[in-house]
Amino acid sequence: MNIGFIGLGNMGAPMAANLIKAGHDVTGFDLVARPDGIALASTASDAAKDADVVITMLPNGTILRAVAAEIHAAMKIGALHLDCSTVDVDSARAVSQAAENAGLLAVDAPVSGGIGGATAGTLTFMAGGSDAAFAMAKPLFDIMGQKAVHCGPAGNGQAAKICNNMILGVTMIATCEAFVLADKLGLDRQAMFDVVSTSSGASWSMNAYCPAPNIGPKSPADNDYIPGFAAELMLKDLNLSQMAARAVDADTPMGAAATALYKTFVEDEAGLGRDFSAMLPRFSARSRKDS
Ligand code: NAD
């Protein structure tokens, strides 16, 4: 396929590289990044105009809407706009509608798996869009990822992503505060892990990404909390979850609490640039009176 790829940052560049490796013709565009090994166009519309599929991997919904307005006007009728950015549900739905109005197919397919998954081609895609649009994107998902779930119509990929990450933020905080309580009760961290990871408190945060150093499988905690998944990216996703919850009047008190805690951590407590599991040393350094 002829593929346009807009947004060649930490995630986009390795995803585009995997498509090239699989034999696709990729023309990229980024305002700043100039990764090696990818043919670059001088504008987004130039990267889009001959493409069967245009992939966008951009920072937020405002930028996505602006780029979409530009590329939709340039794309061939029947081509697919595959957006893999993490953005608000409203922007995803608006961009999908705009694509349809322009005679295009559209899929919103945010990813889980981070830079490691993007490089290894093992991302998970959560996709929203029509059956025809999903079918057109599927071979590309198979190259860039290990799993793609069709979650329903436009916007549902973003909905799945923010619900998943709201659970992740909440369970990571719960796991970290429980470790600190265990410490203060004199419970050994290894014993805590051995019990919880095989009991009803188990979660991905405990079992696969344990926030306590040298416990469980290797994780950013074993590397001084260098991300991994940075706290500010968790905050971004939690903010999106709360924006969506407000829009549809969903009561999400734990999501709201996790959002507030990560906001404080990132903005006031030097959490910026640290892994999101660094909530454990954050709680360790505090006393109950701080709350
Ligand atoms: P990034 O900041 O490294 O890359 C974004 C790129 O978009 C940058 O290179 C920037 O120059 C480019 N860009 C911005 N505006 C543009 C425009 N108008 N036209 C063309 N290019 C433009 O971010 P990233 O880490 O690659 O993340 C991309 C998306 O993937 C985000 O929505 C993020 O939330 C999501 N995501 C990231 C991770 C991760 O671990 N990094 C994991 C899952 C999802």
Distance between the termini: 55 Å
Major sheet size, sense and barrel closure:
9 strands, mixed
Based on CA atoms alone, the radius of gyration comes out at 20 Å
Percent of sequence in beta strands: 5-15%
How many H/I helices? Answer: 12
Overall mean pLDDT: 97
Helix content: 40-55%
The small molecules bound here are: nicotinamide-adenine-dinucleotide
Multimer state: single chain
Write up this protein:
With 291 residues, this protein is of the alpha/beta class. It contains twelve helices and nine strands. It has helices at 12-21, 44-48, 61-74, 89-101, 114-120, 131-144, 156-184, 189-196, 204-207, 231-248, 253-268, 279-284; strands at residues 2-6, 25-29, 39-40, 53-56, 80-83, 105-108, 111-112, 123-129, 145-150. Strands 1, 2, 3, 4, 5, 6, 7, 8 and 9 form a nine-stranded mixed beta sheet that branches. Strand 1 (2-6), helix 1 (12-21) and strand 2 (25-29) form a beta-alpha-beta unit. The protein is elongated, with a radius of gyration of 20 Å. It binds nicotinamide-adenine-dinucleotide (NAD). Nicotinamide-adenine-dinucleotide (NAD) binds at residues 6-12, 29-33, 44, 57-59, 63, 67, 85-86, 111, 114-115, 233, 236.
Brief overview:
The chain has 291 residues and is α/β, with parallel strands linked by helices. The protein has helices at 12-21, 44-48, 61-74, 89-101, 114-120, 131-144, 156-184, 189-196, 204-207, 231-248, 253-268, 279-284, and strands at residues 2-6, 25-29, 39-40, 53-56, 80-83, 105-108, 111-112, 123-129, 145-150. Strands 1, 2, 3, 4, 5, 6, 7, 8 and 9 form a nine-stranded mixed β-sheet that branches.
